[in-house]
Amino acid sequence: EVQLVESGGGLVQPGGSLKLSCATSGFTFSNFRMAWARQAPVKEREFLAAISQMGDFKYYENSVKGRFTISRDNAKNTVYLQMNSLKPEDTAVYSCATITGGKLYSPSFGSWGQGTQVTVSS
Question: 74 near 14, Cβ under 8 Å?
């Protein structure tokens, strides 16, 4: 059974940092590109970043470029999202996903995790 489990969310002040983790199982992690997305209340899911199988290629949406960093550890079957300079508008549920097609900048998604809540507020 494919499983993706996010962790690391929480409440952080504006300007602060958080590092999200997505632990996976049930598939050959190193064979898949991976992505992070978020969904704020009453908004559509927003794709944020993607990483290639070996981690040598990365893509970021403009909304997070320069502030967020996607990475992966294939030995641990885990993908990460380091988030710096957080803003209140970053408040959302953050989820990871497998990429099953398309380009890094326009991927098709396969399996999703349940998400982890990130709240940026003073």
Answer: no
Tokens 């999202």: give the residue: 81
Residue 31 CB-density burial (10 A; 0-12 exposed, 13-18 middle, 19+ buried): exposed
Strands (E), 1-122: 3-7, 10-12, 18-25, 33-39, 46-51, 58-60, 68-73, 78-83, 92-103, 106-112, 116-120
Per the document, the length of the chain is: 122
Angstrom distance (rounded) from CA 65 to CA 23: 23
What does pLDDT average to over the chain?
A: 97
Q: How far apart are the first and last CA of the chain?
A: 40
pLDDT at position 82 is: 98
